[in-house]
Amino acid sequence: MTIETFLDRIEGDKAVLLDEDEREAVIPAAWIPGAHEGQAVTLAITDDPDREAAARAEAEALLRDLAK
Predict the structure, then answer these.
(1) Residue 2, exposed/middle/buried by CB under 10 A (0-12, 13-18, 19+)?
(2) Which residues have a Cβ under 8 Å from the Cβ of 1 and sit 6 or more positions away?
(3) Cα(27)–Cα(54) distance, rounded to whole angstroms?
(4) DSSP for 42-53, written as a single string
(5) What pLDDT is recorded for position 45?
(6) What is d(CA 1, CA 3) in angstroms, rounded to the nearest whole number?
(7) pLDDT confidence of 52, banded at 50, 70, 90?
(8) Alpha-carbon distance 23 to 5, whole Å?
(9) Using an 8 Å Cβ cutoff, are 8 and 16 in contact?
(10) So what's the pLDDT on residue 11?
């Protein structure tokens, strides 16, 4: 999925993005190379089931260790 936005404003270390329906997303400004107001930014969002499964397994192992 891709989402086309514009960088509406920078608030401290946060970038406020707006899409065409004026829905707002706030992300670290450091994630946007050369961040500046008015910049066109396209977000690509992908699901990563392998990384999710690895994180879940790690969390479950930590919980098992704590339960001992």
Answers:
(1) exposed
(2) 44, 45, 46
(3) 25
(4) EEE----HHHHH
(5) 96
(6) 7
(7) very high
(8) 9
(9) yes
(10) 98
